[in-house]
Amino acid sequence: MSRSLKVEFGNEAYLNTCNRIHILPTFLDSIAAAAVPLAMAMLSNNPPADFGNKEEMRSYTISNTLFEIDAKYVPMKLLGEGAYGVVCSSINRETSENVAIKKIRNVFEDRIDALRTLREMKLLRKIKHENVIEMKDIMLPSTKRSFVDVYLVFELMDTDLGQIIRSPQPLSDEQCQCFIFQLLRGLKYLHSANVIHRDLKPGNLLVNSDCELKIGDFGLARTKSPRGEGMNGYVVTRWYRAPELLVCSDNYDAAIDMWSVGCIFAAILGRKPLFPGTDSAHQLELILNTLGVNHDAADFDFVTYQPIRDYIESLPDSPGVPFASMFPDANPLAVDLLKKLLVFNPAKRINATEALEHPYMAQLYDPLLDPAAKGPIDLGFDDDIGEDKIREMIWEETLCYRPGKAAL
Q: What does its activity-regulation comment describe (predicted)?
């Protein structure tokens, strides 16, 4: 069930691997059993007489959440709810395509949240890659000057990597390899386009039953500043947060994503988080206990926040815990790649292209078939813009999916 992979990837070794492996957890069957009959029932109903009017909206309440969406979309079930939005599955009655609709409520209640929404909209319109989730549509608000909610429409995937990791289904080395290859492939493109995701974790990696993986949730993503300065260090879910963020540095780069890849890789191999810290101090302690401390290696020279530097310097040298002993059943090449990803000093950490060139990926990676982006992405705005400008730019992004619509 490899669907579009053969057409999109063209990498024969990768195709052969993905054609042999599938993710078929029982919860996928239950989702399909519930969703498909409901969708078919909705499709079998006669559409309203004015169905062709693209401006018409419909209101639905799904699990106590109001969705006001285009008439062509019929919601099916609530998929999840978080701090930045509510997501439901839906079907496009014009195309019979399953999609996910993300409602971002009261988007202008907080200027930072509004900026985050604008940034995600602009990034996903500009990024086109097989391993990045595709944004298919944005609902056109009823008025330009008074809308408060934003609805983004994405392709619908079967599940996320977090659910796969927590499931009882065993994962083969081929499946682990396939997941990490696609993640690295997407990151090579993003990083070469000047984009840092800043919130990579299993729950943000969307997966289909044929092992197709796509990077999602770009709400915290940023384009890299020229000097790598001035960015908020409080990003990335704690268990996947790089050491440079834990030591209070706001001078960081794409290496933070690579640390997250290492943590994700370890979670796949061990079927649980590697560094489940209860707070930032505990997180740093777990990392140092595992990686060890060698004051002669100059691994901590980049730590400039004096209290944390004093703490690290007070620690005795220690060897850490070998990854080979933590993952005794893993492919030795996988363990070697993991060691190169989970390096404390970001300057010594492997980057996405180097990770793809690692022997563990040798059978899958072809630089000609997995190119970098053509150039950096420019979002075209500064973070100090006000609400009125943000609102105008969100409206303009919406019109990119609705060409020819006039301002209301």
A: Activated by threonine and tyrosine phosphorylation.
| Distance of alpha carbon 153 from alpha carbon 138, whole angstroms | 6
| Given 158, 199, 257, 370, the catalytic residue | 199
Question: 318 near 299, Cβ under 8 Å?
Answer: no
Q: Helices 255-270 and 173-192 sit at what angle, rounded to 10 degrees?
A: 170
Q: List strand residue ranges (DSSP E) for 197-344, in order.
A: 205-207, 213-215, 222-223
Going from the C-alpha of 81 to that of each of 62, 105, 218, 353, the distances in angstroms are 12, 11, 16, 34
CA distances in angstroms from 153 to 74, 75, 101, 312, 399, listed in the order given: 12, 12, 5, 46, 14
173 catalytically annotated: no
Structure token pair of residue 70: 């285009």
Instruction: Express each pLDDT in 350-402 by its tens digit.
Output: 999 999 999 999 889 999 989 999 999 988 888 889 999 999 999 999 999 98
* C-alpha 190 chain-centroid distance: 11
Q: Is 103 annotated as a binding residue?
A: yes
Sign of CA dihedral 155, 161, 162, 163: positive
DSSP 187: H
The string of pLDDT tens digits covering residues 77-112 is 999 887 778 999 999 999 999 999 999 999 999 999
Cβ 72 vs Cβ 58: under 8 Å: no
For residue 290, what are the CA distances in angstroms to 247, 272, 344, 375?
A: 17, 15, 11, 38
In whole angstroms, what separates CA 46 from the centre of its chain?
38
3-state secondary structure of 16: helix
Q: Round the CA-based radius of gyration of the chain to a whole number and report it.
A: 22
Residue-wise pLDDT for 268-303, tens only, equals 999 999 999 999 999 999 999 999 999 988 889 899
